[in-house]
Amino acid sequence: EFDVIDLQDGTVDLLAASAQAKSLDLSVFVDPSISKTFVGDDGRLRQILLNLIHNAIKFTERGGVMVEVTG
Fold it and tell me: Max alpha carbon distance in the chain (Å)?
């Protein structure tokens, strides 16, 4: 079991400096109706999120990147 909000917060924190260096907004939305506790491989999910968010920052020229956690 792991807390999905903690996982995404930690992941976004790791990439915030990259977004800031490009003057991009990096925001997060978590649907309040979802369960905070998930069962699965949190390391694998963290790796996937890191790759997706990193690529979004890398290929975004202006504006921002939003991470949404919905169910």
Answer: 37
